[in-house]
Amino acid sequence: MAGATIGGSFTLIDETGRTVTDLDVITRPSLVYFSYTFCPDVCPTDSARNAEALDLIQARGIDAQAVFGSIDPERDTPERVAEFTDIFHPDMIGLTGTPEQVAAASKAYKTYYAKQDTGDEYYLMDHSTFTYLVLPDRGFVAFFRHDTTPEQIADTVACFSGKT
């Protein structure tokens, strides 16, 4: 029996407000992370780690990017994800979309998320915290846990890029 396929087609809205597909976005090795901009702890830490890894990857001569996919379409507008990703790295792309688009992208990547409904605007989101390495010609090839270091990510990307 074959394992579950991770990744695949999606249609979302990028940080400029343009509707994009996975083919528009995954044009080079990409660190794909699903999260939300209002997260108080894990998401900024992982995004900073992914940005640091991206610097290390690019220093090895690999043209790569990071992709931040929002799991909170109620609050994460294109403008909000642009502000968030701009803080971390110029090669970090922010994506959001309608609730249906976000759910479909999350399902494709086998991520989990759920709103903690507190009845106010300060709700939190429960969610998985994997970062995925996705290559344009191969799709998903590896994932990284929250405790993976930037150096370990860079080494893995270099290995898949033939730059070890």
Brief synopsis:
This protein is an alpha+beta fold and 164 residues long. It has five helices and nine strands.
Structure write-up:
- Helix content is 34%, strand content 25%.
- The chain is of the alpha+beta class.
- The chain has a single domain (11-161), classed as Glutaredoxin (3-Layer(aba) Sandwich), CATH 3.40.30.
- The strands form 2 sheets. A 7-stranded mixed β-sheet has the order 2-1-5-4-3-8-9. Strands 6-7 form a two-stranded antiparallel sheet.
- Strand 1 and strand 2 (19-21) form a beta hairpin.
- Helix 2 (42-59) crosses helix 5.
- The model has no long low-confidence stretch (mean pLDDT 94).
* The first-level CATH class name: Alpha Beta
- Spatial gap, N to C terminus: 33 Å
Helical residue percent band: 25-40%
Give the strand line-up of the largest sheet: 2-1-5-4-3-8-9
- What is the name of the CATH architecture? 3-Layer(aba) Sandwich
CATH superfamily: Glutaredoxin
Structural domain tally? 1
Q: Give me the secondary-structure category.
A: alpha+beta
The description of the largest β-sheet is: 7 strands, mixed
- Poorly predicted tracts of residues: none
Number of helices: 5
Rg computed from alpha carbons, rounded to a whole number of angstroms: 15 Å
Q: What string, H for helix and E for strand, traces the elements in order?
A: EEHEHEHEHEEEEH
Mean pLDDT rating: 94
Beta percentage is 25-35%
